């Protein structure tokens, strides 16, 4: 009897570095020390390095970043909705094969059906997407009020809505409202519908404010409001009686199903927009008003800086002129005092007091040049003298870069000689 064994395990052990190294260690230990006890044997790791946290995928990897994947997701969602609506229209023809339980499974707007399960599934995924949006939005720089926390509340709301798709929570809330409020107010037919529409409108308006940057998500949220409001209005008998040739349950179920799909699609669209915006793959589209405000503020700042620079330059020129004039006055006063002293010492000789002669060029030189400039000229002259002396003596001076090049050449020559 011949038993054939596949070599897939052997190939995987050879390919995987962690398992392969562990297997080689075990083999070497068994060959060298075959008489070891079981406690001294080397225990290999049951998993390779691919099971570590670094090599695992993140939740952001599930976001459809490419346009192709996003369009494929929309196509798959539309196919699922078409299949559910087609089954709800033709389940009466399949009664002899699927029975009453099968007919209930394909009906829309009934708990325990495929449509309710699919809508609850979409709401759960949209809640997870809103949590991911909250995690990304909390790192936004201009969100000073912390509006990203709204997405955490929306995640809880979507979870409650997913439970309501499977369990009849609204009837429980209606019974509790009868105990709290007067029976006369609860008997009004249009009151619960009006409350639902008002609450839905508030949530949708808040969502539109949050999603206004993404045009696609904005349009989908508006479609969600239209679908849910039509489903709520169909609960009123006056609105349902006007429908001719269309069943009330089919319209309500389709509106609710398409609205839930719109909620999922809006969350995914905005999540994709936030991710691409955070990674710099989308340019920020700012309004003209904000651009004009920033341009005006920049102009004001430039004007202020120019004015301050002019003031500072004017102050510096004034201080330099005053200092130079004071020095010039001191220099002119000193020889005059000396001449007066000589006159006092020799009174017999007639002395003519003449003012100190200075040309216009000398006066300009004294007024224009500052002490710092004079020191710089003296330093430059001393450097020129040193360079001339070095050239006469044959001394060569090098910069740091030239010294480094020489060292490198010397090292290369030594290596070649060795």
The helix content, as a percent range, equals: over 70%
Beta content comes to under 5%
The mean pLDDT is: 76
> Strand count, sense and closure of the main sheet?
none
**Discrete helix count:** 16
Shape: elongated
E-strand count = 0
Give me the Rg, rounded.
Answer: 45 Å
Alpha-beta content class: mainly alpha
Weakly predicted, low-confidence segments:
34-42, 341-349, 360-366
H/E series: HHHHHHHHHHHHHHHH
Cα distance, first to last residue?
A: 71 Å
Would you mind describing this structure in some detail?
This protein has 418 residues and is mainly alpha-helical. It is 72% helix and 0% strand. Helix 13 crosses helix 14. The protein is elongated, with a radius of gyration of 45 Å. About 6% of the residues have low confidence.
How are the SSEs placed, and which strands pair?
Blueprint: H1 8-15, H2 17-32, H3 67-90, H4 95-106, H5 114-137, H6 150-166, H7 169-180, H8 183-186, H9 190-210, H10 215-233, H11 237-241, H12 248-278, H13 288-345, H14 360-368, H15 371-393, H16 400-417
Helix pairs in contact: 1-2, 3-12, 5-6, 5-12, 9-10, 10-12, 13-14
Summarize it.
The chain is an all-alpha fold and 418 residues long. It has 16 helices and no strands. 72% of the residues lie in helices and 0% in strands.
Keywords:
0% strand; single chain; mainly alpha; 418 residues
């Amino acid at each position: 009897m011949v038993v054939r064994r596949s070599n897939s395990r052997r190939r995987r052990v050879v390919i995987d570095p962690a398992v392969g190294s562990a297997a080689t260690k075990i083999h070497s230990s068994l060959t060298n020390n075959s008489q070891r006890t079981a406690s001294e044997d080397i225990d290999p790791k049951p998993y390779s390095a691919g099971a570590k946290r670094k090599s695992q995928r993140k939740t952001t990897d599930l976001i459809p970043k490419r346009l192709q994947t996003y369009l494929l997701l929309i196509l798959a969602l539309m196919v699922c909705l078409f299949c559910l609506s087609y089954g709800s229209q033709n389940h009466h023809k399949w009664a002899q094969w699927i029975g009453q339980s099968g007919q209930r499974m394909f009906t829309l707007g009934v708990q325990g059906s495929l449509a309710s399960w699919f809508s609850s599934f979409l709401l759960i995924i949209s809640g997870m997407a809103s949590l991911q949006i909250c995690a990304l939005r909390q790192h936004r720089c201009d969100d000073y009020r912390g509006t990203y926390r709204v997405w955490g509340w929306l995640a809880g709301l979507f979870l409650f809505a997913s439970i309501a798709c499977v369990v009849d929570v609204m009837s429980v809330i209606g019974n509790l409202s009868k105990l709290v409020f007067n029976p006369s107010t609860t008997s009004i037919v249009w009151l619960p519908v009006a409350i639902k529409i008002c609450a839905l409108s508030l949530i949708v308006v808040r969502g539109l404010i949050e999603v206004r940057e993404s045009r696609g998500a904005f349009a989908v949220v508006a479609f969600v409001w239209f679908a849910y409001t039509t489903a709520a209005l169909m609960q009123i008998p006056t609105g349902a009686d006007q429908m001719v040739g269309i069943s009330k349950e089919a319209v309500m179920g389709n509106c609710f199903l398409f609205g839930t799909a719109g909620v999922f699609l809006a969350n995914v669209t905005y999540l994709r927009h936030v991710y691409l915006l955070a990674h710099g793959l989308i340019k920020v589209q700012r309004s003209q008003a904000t651009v004009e405000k920033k341009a005006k503020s920049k102009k004001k700042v430039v004007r202020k800086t120019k004015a301050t620079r002019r003031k500072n330059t004017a102050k510096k020129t004034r201080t330099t002129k005053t200092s130079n004039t004071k020095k010039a006055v001191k220099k002119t006063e000193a020889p005059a005092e000396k001449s007066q002293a000589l006159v006092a010492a020799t009174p017999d000789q007639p002395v003519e007091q003449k003012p100190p002669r200075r040309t216009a060029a000398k006066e300009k030189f004294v007024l224009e040049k500052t002490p710092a400039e004079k020191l710089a000229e003296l330093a430059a002259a001393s450097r020129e003298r040193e360079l001339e002396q070095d050239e006469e003596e044959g001394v060569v001076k090098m910069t740091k870069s030239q010294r480094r090049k020489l060292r490198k050449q010397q090292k290369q020559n030594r290596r070649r000689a060795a």
